[in-house]
């Protein structure tokens, strides 16, 4: 076999792996808005929601949390400082829904470097029910939110999660974030879970409280800088699995800037690199660039058409992604193709950045992520 053939085969293998992941994820996933499976029994549930500041869709996401179709649930809003402007909005929304149990818990418990986990501690301790959901404040909860999570709890489950689906982007960079969240990150997470490699996602996490309390409680999630990484390792350590909901929940994006996308993706990549380095390392092979460069090199050596080689790779990577988004009712627009291309040109740079030191910003906290540990410093901006 000559070099041109070897390069062409390597390119084809990467395209085939990409297609296989889409097929596996597509089989596992249900379309957006699909009804959850029916379940017997609906136990009371506590929902712990860490909040900080008012965001673009706070009015909507708060209102949705109070309109869930479940016989009994409580909402525990956790805020570090009582003067946070989100407090007044929560109180206003709660007053409009007096039939829903809701409490605002104020305080800053420093159990580690993760500001979100620090904020959740008081909510976990105050939860009255045996089933607890840790939910980010920007999740757009459908009315059957709890039922989706409970329905996907199985006999071997230690945790049920949902990846965020980007929706309602405003501007090109928000379209790019949709392509990161949906047909890349969600797709690979569902493909991995279908193959027995479930990874936790911190956006929505359903816990059996007695089980976690018996294994160190919420403080055990401080074993890693990212609570979802610590959750994955804890669940696997006790012989259980992380499962994902069959139809993930949306996160409305609004407007994004290129700088925000870069910062957020670098942060997540560096957290993955620190917590799961053996899974993170192969991420350099994701996206269109590796198979495209291999195919172009093969065409150049063989003296065949470079444009044709490029077109075949682009079609082999992007058409299946578009088909998955269309089949599942995910974001797809005229800007999707250029957003996909920009995403894939950013991927190698983000991967390389993840191996370097330095600081990142996490909701107003400056964090230094090294090779094995993290340091948290308060940002000057305050609460």
TrEMBL record:
The keyword S-adenosyl-L-methionine does not apply. Coiled coil: none annotated. It is found in: Membrane. Pathway: Sphingolipid metabolism; Lipid metabolism; sphingolipid metabolism. It comes from Shinella zoogloeoides. One of its GO terms (cellular component) is membrane. Keywords: Glycosyltransferase, Membrane, Transferase, Transmembrane, Transmembrane helix. It is a multi-pass membrane protein. The chain crosses the membrane at residues 292-320, 332-352. GO terms for molecular function: ceramide glucosyltransferase activity. This is Glycosyltransferase.
């Amino acid at each position: 076999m000559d070099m041109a053939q070897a390069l062409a085969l390597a390119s084809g293998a990467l395209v085939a792996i990409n297609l296989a992941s889409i097929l596996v994820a597509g089989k596992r996933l249900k379309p957006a808005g699909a009804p959850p499976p029916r379940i017997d029994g609906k136990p009371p549930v506590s929902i712990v929601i860490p909040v900080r500041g008012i965001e673009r869709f706070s009015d909507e996401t708060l209102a949705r949390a109070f309109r869930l179709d479940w016989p009994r649930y409580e909402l525990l809003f956790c805020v570090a400082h009582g003067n946070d402007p989100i407090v007044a909005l929560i109180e206003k929304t709660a007053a409009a829904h007096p039939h829903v149990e809701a409490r605002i818990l104020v305080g800053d418990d420093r159990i580690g470097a993760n500001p979100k986990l620090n904020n959740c501690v008081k909510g976990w301790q105050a939860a009255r029910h045996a089933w607890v959901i840790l939910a980010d404040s920007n999740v757009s909860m459908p009315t059957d939110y709890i039922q989706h999570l409970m329905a996907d709890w199985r006999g071997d489950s230690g945790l049920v999660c949902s990846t965020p689906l980007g929706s309602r982007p405003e501007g090109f960079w928000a379209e790019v974030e949709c392509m990161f969240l949906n047909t890349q990150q969600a797709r690979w997470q569902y493909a991995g879970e279908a193959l027995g490699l479930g990874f936790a996602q911190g956006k929505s996490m359903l816990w059996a409280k007695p089980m976690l309390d018996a294994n160190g409680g919420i403080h055990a999630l401080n074993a890693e800088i990212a609570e979802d990484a610590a959750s994955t390792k804890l669940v696997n350590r006790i012989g259980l699995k992380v499962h994902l909901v069959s139809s993930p929940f949306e996160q409305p994006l609004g407007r994004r800037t290129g700088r925000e996308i870069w910062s957020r993706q670098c942060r997540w990549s560096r957290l993955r690199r620190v917590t799961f380095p053996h899974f993170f390392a192969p991420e350099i092979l994701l996206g269109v660039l590796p198979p495209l460069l291999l195919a172009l090199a093969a065409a150049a050596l063989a003296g065949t058409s470079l444009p044709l080689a490029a077109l075949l790779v682009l079609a082999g990577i992007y058409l299946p992604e578009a088909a998955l988004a269309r089949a599942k009712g995910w974001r797809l627009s005229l800007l999707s193709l250029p957003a996909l291309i920009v995403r894939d040109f950013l991927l190698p740079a983000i991967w390389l950045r993840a191996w370097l030191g330095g600081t990142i910003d996490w909701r107003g906290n400056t964090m230094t992520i090294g090779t094995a540990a993290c340091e948290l410093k308060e940002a000057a901006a305050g609460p």
